[in-house]
C-alpha cells in the first residue's frame, strides 16, 4: 500500500461532496419550500447498476431515503429475485424533492433538478441505468417514447461523455395496481444480470449522445382518465 487514494474511494468522496455542496440545500425550484428534506439518493456510489425513479413521496420526504414506501418494498423484492440488495445498486429519482400531494413532476421542476441526476450518473458511471416509469425514461433517453412501448428494450447511450446502457422498466408503483404489469416487470427484471454482464460491450457499440435539455413532457391525461386508474394518476405509463 502506498497510501494513495484509490479510484473507488475517490468516487465515494466525490458523490458525497456533490450531495453536500449542491443537492442537500438545493433551492433551485419552489419544491424546496414544501419539503421536509432532500432525497438525494442511496446505495453504493460504486454500483454498476443505477435505478432512477420519479420523485420522493410522503415516506421518502420523511426519511430522506428513496423508495421506502410500498413501491420501494416491491423494488426490494424484485432486486432480491435477481440476487441483489439495495446496497449493491444506487437508487435515485428525477426529482430530489417531493411534489405536493405526489402530483406529477412539472417540466420546470425537471429542468431545475436534472443537473443533479446527470452529475450523479457522471460520478457513479453505472454500466446499466434502469429507468422506472415514464419520467426517468424520457429524461435519460432524450426521446418521447412512453414506457409501455419501450420497457424491456435496452438502449446504448452516452451520458455526460460516459457510455452506458439504458434499460427502461415499468415503475414498481404501477405493478401495485396491475398484476399483469407485475409479471412484465419481473420478466424485464430477470434480464438485468445478463445485461449488466455485457453492458460495457453493448454500451460501447453505438452510443447516442444525450445532451441534457428541457424535458419533453407528456400531455397530462384528461381528468376522467386520471380517475379511471390509480397507476395512471402517478404518470407511470
Ligand atoms: N419513491 C421514490 O423514491 N420514487 C418514486 O418514483 C416512487 C416512490
Descriptive notes:
With 237 residues, the chain is an alpha/beta fold. The protein has a single domain (10-198), classed as 3-Layer(aba) Sandwich (Uracil-DNA Glycosylase, subunit E). It has helices spanning 7-23, 31-34, 58-63, 70-81, 107-124, 134-141, 147-150, 172-177, 179-190, 192-197, 199-203, 223-228, 230-233; strands at 42-43, 49-53, 90-93, 128-132, 155-159, 162-169, 208-210. A 7-stranded mixed beta sheet has the order 1-3-2-4-6-5-7. Strand 5 (155-159) and strand 6 form a beta hairpin. Helix 1 (7-23) runs antiparallel to helix 5 (107-124).
Strand order of the largest sheet: 1-3-2-4-6-5-7
- Please state the second-level CATH architecture: 3-Layer(aba) Sandwich
Can you tell me the CATH superfamily? Uracil-DNA glycosylase-like domain
Give the DSSP E fraction (strand runs of 2 or more residues).
5-15%
Unreliable stretches covering 5 or more consecutive residues:
207-235
Return the domain count.
1
Give Rg in angstroms: 17 Å
Secondary-structure element order, N to C: HHEEHHEHEHHEEHHHHEHH
The chain-level mean pLDDT equals 87
List keywords for this structure.
alpha/beta, 237 residues, disordered C terminus, binds uracil, 13 helices, 7-stranded mixed β-sheet, 46% helix, Uracil-DNA Glycosylase, subunit E
Describe, in short, the structure shown.
This protein is α/β, with parallel strands linked by helices. The protein has a single domain (10-198), classed as Uracil-DNA glycosylase-like domain (Uracil-DNA Glycosylase, subunit E, 3-Layer(aba) Sandwich), CATH 3.40.470.
Amino acid at each position: 500500500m502506498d497510501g494513495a487514494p484509490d479510484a473507488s474511494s475517490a468516487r465515494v468522496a466525490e458523490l458525497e461532496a456533490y450531495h453536500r455542496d449542491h443537492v442537500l440545500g438545493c433551492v433551485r425550484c419552489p419544491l424546496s419550500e414544501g419539503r421536509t428534506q432532500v432525497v438525494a439518493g442511496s446505495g453504493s456510489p460504486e454500483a454498476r447498476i443505477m435505478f432512477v425513479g420519479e420523485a420522493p413521496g410522503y415516506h421518502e420526504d420523511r426519511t430522506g431515503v428513496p423508495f421506502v414506501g410500498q413501491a420501494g418494498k416491491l423494488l426490494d423484492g424484485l432486486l432480491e429475485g435477481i440476487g441483489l440488495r439495495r446496497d449493491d445498486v444506487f437508487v435515485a429519482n428525477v426529482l430530489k424533492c417531493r411534489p405536493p400531494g405526489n402530483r406529477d413532476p412539472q417540466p420546470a421542476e425537471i429542468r431545475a433538478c436534472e443537473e443533479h441526476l446527470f452529475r450523479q450518473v457522471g460520478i457513479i458511471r453505472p454500466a446499466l441505468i434502469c429507468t422506472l416509469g415514464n419520467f426517468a425514461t424520457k429524461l435519460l433517453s432524450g426521446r418521447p417514447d412512453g414506457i409501455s412501448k419501450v420497457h424491456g428494450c435496452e438502449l446504448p447511450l452516452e451520458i455526460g461523455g460516459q457510455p452506458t446502457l439504458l434499460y427502461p422498466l415499468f415503475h414498481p408503483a404501477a405493478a401495485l395496481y396491475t398484476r399483469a404489469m407485475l409479471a412484465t416487470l419481473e420478466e424485464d427484471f430477470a434480464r438485468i444480470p445478463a445485461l449488466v454482464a455485457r453492458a460495457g460491450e453493448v454500451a460501447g457499440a453505438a452510443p447516442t449522445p444525450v445532451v441534457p435539455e428541457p424535458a419533453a413532457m407528456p400531455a397530462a391525461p384528461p381528468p376522467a382518465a386520471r380517475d379511471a386508474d390509480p397507476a395512471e394518476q402517478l404518470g407511470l405509463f
